[in-house]
Amino acid sequence: MRVASPFFTFDQLHNFPVLTPPARLAVIGDPIAHSKSPQMHNPALMARGIEAQYVRVQVPVGHVREAFRLFADQGFLGVNITIPHKFEALDAVDVVDPLAARLGAVNTLAIREGRLYGYNTDGPGFLRSVREAFGTEVRDLRVLILGAGGGAGRAVAVQCVLAGCRHLLLANRTESKLAALLDELRSLTTEAVALETCSLDHGQLAARLVGVDLVVNATSVGMKDGDAPLLPAGALEDRHLVYDMVYRASGPTELIRQAAGVGARHADGMCLLLHQGAISFEHWFGGEAPLEAMRTGLMTTLAALA
Ligand code: ATR
User: Fold this and answer.
1) Whole-model pTM?
2) pLDDT-derived band of residue 4, with 50, 70 and 90 as boundaries?
């Protein structure tokens, strides 16, 4: 019988129990008990008729390399890596995908014939979810990234430039964090890209939104009730596309509420989670991931939390 979401400790990896179906995929992090990835991947495995299951394993900092070896020894096919292990994982794999190397972080491991391959699904997941939510490509949009100085914002910015976006406005509370990112983005392309920066000041943002199509929130603002609005009231128009990387099971964020209030199309972090999951699945098994089985699994578990 398949348990919805089995949980194991790092110590148990040394003598992993025999499960039915066998555990072949895992998500690691610390903490990890909250992860909803099993509820997305186990339905996908069933939909594809793959006799395997996806489990959660709590791995303490400093043990990622050892954990990867133990997973490989026990016949695992892949692992998702979440906070705080994405950087440690980069140094623990045998082969780093170029995008993961550029972002300096690995969040997906594929184990093939004992070799460890590291990927990063943040940027590709963002592109796919924009395509699904808005039916358009970021290369055709003028994009504002709020929180471009953070890890998630940097991944989105790099992916936008690599995908051919030609108008990118980077905003961050601490504006000084954007200088290095600007240099990096300029090194990614020989094409002319309009790269600009601004602060999160409401007056500045209101003026800048006039020349923006897609607004991406990559800050952590919105996770908590009572977080101050990122955008000034009245600044969004119905033509804007709004992508909030934050997801709250308890209800829409203030940014999503603002977007909905003016009739602007919007997407949230659940969309990103889903498409990142699908990309991981494709790294492990090839072909197209069973997206609808994954979506149903994820939505069912998140709805139960609301
Ligand atoms: P992650 O890797 O998940 O992106 P992070 O690297 O800690 O997390 O980045 C968090 C982002 O949210 C940063 O851009 C941060 O701004 P600073 O660089 O100024 O710290 C942004 N952020 C966090 N709290 C914020 C707040 N209250 N207002 C505005 N931006 C905030």
Assistant:
1) 0.94
2) low
